[in-house]
Amino acid sequence: MAEPPSALTYKKFVHFALEETRKHTNLSPSPLQEKFGCLSSIDGKTELHMHSFESPKIRLLRSLCIEGSDSMQVLDFAIFPRVEFDLPIFCANFFTTAAMSIVLLDLNPLHDVISQHDYKKKYYTHLIPLGNEYTELFPWGGKITSESMKFFSPIVIWSKFPPSQQKHHLLYSAFCDYLKSWLQLMDHVTAETDSSKIIMNLEAQHRYLTWRAEKDPGHQLLRRLTGETLAKEIIRSFLFKGVDELGMKMFIDYFPEYKCDDGTVNQKRSMVGKSFESRPWDTRGEFMGNTSK
């Protein structure tokens, strides 16, 4: 029997995340919480619930849950480390309707795991068995642009499935296990004291925020629910807080291939012209790099 869409709520995921994180660190409400809490959509049929926290090693832990009257459920959950730490960015993006679930769960690498083997070994090598366990259960969800792939790790879960497959309990299990793994990494990481490496961490996080603030596929939904002005504020001042504070570089500075002749940003999803339609990592976590036009 298919799992009724109405039975699903991503608030359960957020509740676990907050309770589990509090076992590892002292979470304090972020100043963002005063402004970004609960909102209703323009038509009054959808609610947006936002939470935000910080801690000694966490610059921002934030969540956005969207619950619609049409069985739509969305979770956008992320943990951004303070720039003294080169920790990956915890990322969970889940979108569910009565017809389909689209999920992305990862410890997004702060630095390149394809060319920087030391960083990969430090944070991912011991997690490859965990990733293999869940990527067997969640087959690759289809084409991903080459540009987006730079922000994913060897353990990324990117998948699509209909409610009839009853995978939401498995997704909850994956979310819990990935979060526990991230928290263990946080427990053992020490603050960087080399100013040049701190600057590298800062720029890497700002580059990530700049990409997400411009190209995240969930932006269209936010604009439809809240209008252009409020959606932009949620994106830049809440979901990807730091994009306007951590650095001066603009999107085109990081990604010049997107610059149009008039100086604006090309709205195409990919400028490289290639995409990954199958999983580009093998079971050892080695990047195979198979692409297709």
Automatic annotation (TrEMBL):
InterPro entries: Ferredoxin-dep_bilin_Rdtase. Pfam families: Fe_bilin_red. One of its GO terms (biological process) is phytochromobilin biosynthetic process. Keywords: Oxidoreductase. GO terms for molecular function: cobalt ion binding; phytochromobilin:ferredoxin oxidoreductase activity. PANTHER family: PHYTOCHROMOBILIN:FERREDOXIN OXIDOREDUCTASE, CHLOROPLASTIC. Belongs to the HY2 family. This is Phytochromobilin:ferredoxin oxidoreductase, chloroplastic. It comes from Cuscuta campestris.
